[in-house]
Amino acid sequence: MTIAEEKQAQRTAGRAARKALAAPQRAAANAALCRRVLELDAYRAAHTLLLYAAFGGEADLAAVAAEAVRQGKTVAYPVCGEGFTLIAAVPGGWAVGQYGIHAPVLERSALLQPEQLDLVLVPCTAFDADCRRVGMGKGYYDRYLPRCTKAAKIGIALEVQRVAHAAVDEHDQ
């Protein structure tokens, strides 16, 4: 099996595993994950965060976002742009964006440069114990993360998405 085939298999399995969680299990897993994020030194030290709006059963960081706002932190969300680029936007309004994902309306949002971010929480479809991640396959974060020169970067997924060895290429972040 090629790396590309392995990645696709891991994406499919990871999405299926997270969607298969019953509502009580999902709620408990999301609550535990958010508690863990809020305990991290990287979170505590961060003033400017890039989160994501959960989609398709992804780990939901809404509790992290709410606590960050309560603490006076700046919370931005990614907007998919042309050429598989990401833009970090502090929402001034929301819309359904590319791929059906809720995203800030750029014209009503404050835009942040990647080097302004202190913490980036990145969704995963699969991950392993060595901190390798498999994303959705378009490479948005793989292109964006190297530009986040001051940020701690943390992959976010539910335990059911763990694999023994994440299929990655050299360019994967």
Q: What this model shows, in words?
A:
With 173 residues, this protein is an alpha/beta fold. It has helices at residues 3-19, 23-39, 41-45, 62-70, 140-144; strands at 48-50, 74-80, 86-90, 94-96, 102-104, 110-112, 119-123, 126-127, 133-134, 152-156. The protein starts with a helix and ends in a 17-residue tail after the last strand. The mean pLDDT is 88.
- Order of the strands making up the biggest sheet: 6-3-2-1-7-10
Question: Major sheet: size, sense and barrel closure?
Answer: 6 strands, mixed
Succession of helices and strands: HHHEHEEEEEEEEHE
Number of helices: 5
Q: In terms of topology, how is this protein built?
A:
Blueprint: H1 3-19, H2 23-39, H3 41-45, E1 48-50, H4 62-70, E2 74-80, E3 86-90, E4 94-96, E5 102-104, E6 110-112, E7 119-123, E8 126-127, E9 133-134, H5 140-144, E10 152-156
Helix pairs in contact: 2-4
List keywords for this structure.
173 residues, two-stranded antiparallel sheet, 5 helices, globular
